[in-house]
Specification:
paralog of FGE (formylglycine-generating enzyme); alpha+beta; binds calcium ion; 8 strands
């Protein structure tokens, strides 16, 4: 499966080279047309042969968030959920405040949805978060704005599914099979994910909010600490649920948007590809975060 949206954004270091090919340099002055063409071709060939040793051109895509990108199949995806430290860089660079901050806090489901005063991406359970915790209490449009700033966008549903379930590393490390589609982002079993009750205790021991007074679950774990899954990605199953751009490209912020991968609030079932869940894009809650693609 290949995303049709993957190609238009594929921006590698060769982009600058291609644009520069054929540009006459000062060495061509005074040469005849045939000689000039030969010289240009030679210069282009030299530029290509030197490409491997040439530093990235100034047109290389910026990575202001410092995202660790994993190539998949015509696109790249962040290896972890977007972190508090990454979102802080964005907030400091743009001055943007989230709706949860402006409105006094995000929400959690107890006996219905309740607002939790002071719970924001900086203080997801009411206390300051570590830099490597996932950024949550963030609406769909806020996540999309972060990803645009970070040099990418939110994944489409197809991109997220491709990255989460089909192994694309070549060669794949031991224990993984290139081209195979797995049942869970963690592989054949959900073990090792940070989910509610059937992913094992390994990731639950990493949870940061066991004393936060939650009515359910233990909260998220810092990113990148659970067992790496398909494509070497962390927490595609469980931990923070993740916004995807589905329906793709829709501009209405309040529209229902899909979330993928389940979370610490639920068991393993929502980690599967056939589990469809969506929420209004204006939802800012404790167990929904995101990651970007480019
Ligand atoms: Ca996740």
């Amino acid at each position: 499966m290949e995303s049709p949206q993957g190609h238009d954004k594929h921006r590698g270091p060769h982009r600058g080279h291609a644009r520069d090919q054929g540009r006459d340099g000062p060495c061509d002055a005074g040469l005849g047309p045939a000689r000039r063409a030969t010289t240009s071709a030679l210069l282009a060939a030299l530029a290509l042969s030197a490409g491997a040793a040439t530093p990235a051109p100034a047109t290389a895509p910026a990575n202001p968030a410092g995202i660790d990108w994993q190539p998949i199949n015509g696109f790249e995806i962040a290896r972890t959920e977007t972190t508090v430290a990454q979102f802080r860089r964005y907030a400091q660079d743009t001055g943007r405040r989230t709706a949860a901050e402006a409105q006094g806090g995000g929400e959690v489901y107890e006996a219905g949805w309740v607002q939790k005063k002071g719970w924001t991406w900086q203080t997801p359970f009411g206390r300051p978060a570590a830099d490597d915790e996932p950024a949550v209490h963030i609406r769909f449009d806020e996540a999309q704005a972060f990803c645009r700033w970070a040099g990418g966008r939110l994944p489409t549903d197809l991109q997220w599914l491709e990255a989460a379930y089909t192994e694309r590393r070549q060669p794949a490390p031991a224990g993984w099979v290139t081209g195979r589609r797995y049942t869970y982002p963690t592989g054949d079993s959900p073990q090792g994910a940070q989910c509610l009750d059937d992913c094992g205790a390994q990731a639950q021991r990493l949870a940061v909010a066991a004393q936060a007074g939650l009515t359910r679950g233990l909260g998220h774990a810092p990113v990148g600490r659970t067992r790496a899954g398909v494509n070497g990605l962390f927490d595609m199953g469980g931990n923070a649920w993740e916004w995807v751009d589905e329906p793709a490209g829709l501009a209405q912020p309040q529209a229902e948007r899909r979330t993928r991968g389940g979370s610490w609030w639920y068991g393993a079932s929502p980690m599967r590809a056939d589990h469809l869940q969506s929420k209004p894009g204006t939802t800012a809650v404790v167990y929904i975060g995101f990651r970007c693609v480019r």
